[in-house]
Inverse folding.
């Protein structure tokens, strides 16, 4: 995979209104591949947590025979985290609380599809 | 219960590595278990018990690990060991009572469950198990009794067993909470099993039908999970082969990680999680008492519609929980 593809995926996501950071993470190890985050956001732990959340949610849906996990959207009072699976990678976007979540999820899934 | 921090894990690991006889194997194994690293926890327990063969908590934890791995026989062995060391140990009495109930050793099950009930009469899981035990004993009695044609009541279709007798023979046995032994301070009712917390009244109301009002259109099912991922109420009707218990157990882990992620990003408490899979869409929402409401819908369901259904399911769950708080 061309390393520019990772940067392009992240750049496309951060252009969406309300997105304040994005990254591509190794799903298995939780290691960030590339990231564009707001100042003050520690990408290392975030990558590990996001990958772990995606993995665990994926194990849960598999255990429940609900099919393979494709995307996760975490909603909280202060903002949202949107994740889309791209094979061994996970595309992660951090969004403001009033962001257009539908648009962000579509962009995250598009970015993920480009990395598969 | 306070969760161990990374520094604790490192310290315990170092202590166990430098001194195989260190009692730090116990908190470290518990932490591994919570993280889902059950093999590591099991190995630690086994090694720790070599140095401390009389350690009560070690045997209790090992019993839970074996039970979670599906090895009921070894779990029963470990709980038996706990009872040799501490004959009145509640967790071991309850665990063995469940094991014997599952294997059909009803008299032994009764002895252990009644002893557990003497220690904690209000424990909902023990109460439910005793109720199930009585149903099974009654079912056996009826099945074994000769009918007026000289056969036995269970010998053919249309036999005269009382309603529920056959069901009692095959109904799933409640299990101790995965964290039962570590949750000594937990209030009564949190360590129970599906549908137990409300006692007989809730069982009579059939908690699997709690979410009937939202089971329309693309909704595949809805569940109310306790903090350990055990099902308190609700059911999944689709897709074929879906396992509500498997889903619930796994989602408990995912919710913990979601909370940590939100905290790391200073986003405040999590309010919802939407999962998209190849077959379905699932919405998770926090509910009172550290419970979680899960609404499952078809993958092609409109997201906004699913969110509204989830909000309605949360209301139903809150009322259900309030009704026997």
């Amino acid at each position: 995979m061309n390393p520019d593809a990772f940067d392009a995926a992240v750049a496309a996501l951060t252009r969406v209104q309300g997105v304040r950071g994005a990254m591509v993470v190794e799903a298995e190890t939780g290691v960030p591949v590339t990231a564009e985050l707001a100042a003050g956001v520690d990408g290392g732990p975030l990558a590990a947590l996001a990958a772990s959340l995606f993995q665990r949610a994926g194990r849960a849906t598999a255990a429940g025979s609900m099919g393979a996990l494709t995307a996760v959207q975490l909603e909280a009072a202060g903002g949202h985290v949107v994740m889309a699976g791209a094979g061994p990678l996970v595309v992660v976007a951090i969004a403001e609380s009033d962001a257009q979540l539908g648009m962000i999820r579509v962009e995250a899934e598009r970015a993920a599809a480009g990395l598969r | 219960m306070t969760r161990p921090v990374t520094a604790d894990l490192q310290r315990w690991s170092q202590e166990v590595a430098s001194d195989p006889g260190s009692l730090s194997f116990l908190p470290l194994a518990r932490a591994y278990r919570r993280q889902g690293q059950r093999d590591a926890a099991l190995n630690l327990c086994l090694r720790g018990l070599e140095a401390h063969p009389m350690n009560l908590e070690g045997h209790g934890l090992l019993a839970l690990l074996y039970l979670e791995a599906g090895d009921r026989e070894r779990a029963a062995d470990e709980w038996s060991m706990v009872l040799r060391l501490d004959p009145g140990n509640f967790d071991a009495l309850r665990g063995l009572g469940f094991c014997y109930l599952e294997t059909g050793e009803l008299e032994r099950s009764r002895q252990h469950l009644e002893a557990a009930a003497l220690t904690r009469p209000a424990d909902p899981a023990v109460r439910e198990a005793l109720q199930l035990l009585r149903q099974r004993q009654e079912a056996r009695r009826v099945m074994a009794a000769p009918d007026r044609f000289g056969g036995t009541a269970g010998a053919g279709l249309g036999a005269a067993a009382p309603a529920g007798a056959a069901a009692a023979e095959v109904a799933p046995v409640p299990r101790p909470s995965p964290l039962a032994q570590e949750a000594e301070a937990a209030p009564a009712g949190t360590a129970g099993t599906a549908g137990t917390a409300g006692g007989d009244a809730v069982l009579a109301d059939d908690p699997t039908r709690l979410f009937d009002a939202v089971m329309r259109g693309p909704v595949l099912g809805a569940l109310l999970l306790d903090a350990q991922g055990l099902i308190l109420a609700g059911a999944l009707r689709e897709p074929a082969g879906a396992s509500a218990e498997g889903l619930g157990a796994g989602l408990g882990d995912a919710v913990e990680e979601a909370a940590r992620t939100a905290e790391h990003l200073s986003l405040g408490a999590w309010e919802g999680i939407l999962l998209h899979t190849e077959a379905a869409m699932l919405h998770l929402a926090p509910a009172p008492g550290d419970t979680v409401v899960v609404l499952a819908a078809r993958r092609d369901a409109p997201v906004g519609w699913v969110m509204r259904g989830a909000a309605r399911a949360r209301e139903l769950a809150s009322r259900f929980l309030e009704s026997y708080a």
